Give the backbone structure.
Amino acid sequence: MPHALGWRFLVLAASVFALLAGTPNPAQQWGSDRRLPENKIPESAKAVLEQADRFELLSLKPYPFVEGGFYRHEILGRTEIVDAKTRTSLIAAFEKGVAENHGDAAMCFNPRHGIHVSRHGKNVDFVICFECLQVQIHGDVQGGVLVSRSPQPVYNKVLRDAGITLADK
């Protein structure tokens, strides 16, 4: 019997090696510079964000999913941000959070924050999960970016100051 187990191990090891050998190197997929793609807010989304006619910050319940809502997440509350200083603070915190993330993300997506902005009829929505460090971008611009947790206290303060409930952790 020990001899049979040895063969089984060799066959398993050879299979794993063959699978790994056929898996492309991520650096090969993204070009010869061997780096991950740059993590940045798409320029068209950034333009709408920074020059928005309307800017709303939302508090979201991450689960369970609901029909409607903000990309299937229940809206616990929303506030329009009309004060230029507050907008600048939220945008600066978001841009800083994106710049701070160099490839970290978790496998979850439990967003508790959202931003809805519009400018000249273009709408861009940011669904933000500080827990897993990811942002999904929807609307007239599609995509995603990674973010650090550093903007979360700024966002929570603005929501709390507006009397809006925050989702449980």
Observations:
- The first strand starts at residue 54 and ends at 61.
- DSSP finds five helices and six strands in the chain.
